[in-house]
Amino acid sequence: MASLAQPSDGTLPDVYYTGATTIRGNYVIDLAGRNYLNYRAAKQNESAAQFDVERGALTLAVQITEAYLDIILAREQLQIQKDLLRANQDFLDVISLRFAKGEVSAVEVLQQKGQVATAASQIPLAIASINNSQRRLGLWLGQPFATPLSKSLIALPTDGPDPDPGIPAGLLHHHPGLKSAAMRLLASSNAAKSALRHHLPVLNLSGQVGKQYFYSNDLTTQPFWGAGATLSLPLFSGFADQAAIEIAQAQAQGSRHTYEEMYRRAIMEVETTLTTFDATGSQLAEIEVALYNTQKAYEKSRQRYLSGVGDYVSTLTALQLYQQNKLNTLAVKRRRLSAEIQLRAAIGGAWTTGLGTTQRGKS
Length: 363
Fold this sequence. Notes:
A three-stranded antiparallel beta sheet has the order 1-2-3, with no helix packed on it. The chain has 363 residues and is mainly alpha-helical. It is built from six helices and three strands, in the order βααααββαα.
């Protein structure tokens, strides 16, 4: 390094010291906006990942709700099967009493014993259904099977206000899966724009400031500074840049196709689940009428049989229709609730926000 000060005779001592303290700065002015586009793409990918978490949490919430309702359904089915067994047993007691009096034949007694055995055979299946539903719910909650479960609901919930499906465009703001796909589409579009602008010029500003010193017998210092600007223009890099551009454009096009497919699928899911929801509502209304009529028919038929007017076959048929309609009504209620759950999940909405932050197994 050149010295700052030298002896008057132009000679240097055998030992001397030189040095410098420098602070340098560099700032790239991205005229094409590539860095900003990459930043936007990164932020949009981050948002897409957050929406993916919400989407996964929504799926998990649906599975947990379905499993819990299955437990309630299985419990109600078990109670109906027990009621059916008890009714058949009571009926058998009546027939046995009438048989002892010589009022009925042994055939009716044997037939009713068969009905009692048939009703009893359904009890183990109903219990197994409860256990399997509890295991499934425990799996989704991340809890062992022995963990006590909430018993706040002892029957399937009744209908509440019907969900509002809104308009197809509303899904873009309500459905976490669509929001994730939209964010990835924007991110890939920005990445493709950034790659396409790779050959545009980049302006680089640089500057430095510091102090030099020279020491032989005395210390001499001198401040200095400097500034510069460089305009760079990439020209050729062995076709690698063009390949990167084509890859980025292909990824953007793929993201667009994925988004459009998910959008159409989301609309179809809302429409199909809404149709099922409306159909099960109509079905439930009709089967509840059937349940009421078969209950009344059984009660009257039983009274006629006990009074000695009615016959065994008609009374047994009325009992079987009544109990079957009870089970059918329960099954339709469950299908309607499932359709409502699927419809609300397909619509999405503000209630899905924050689902991903809930700890698994915690209420």
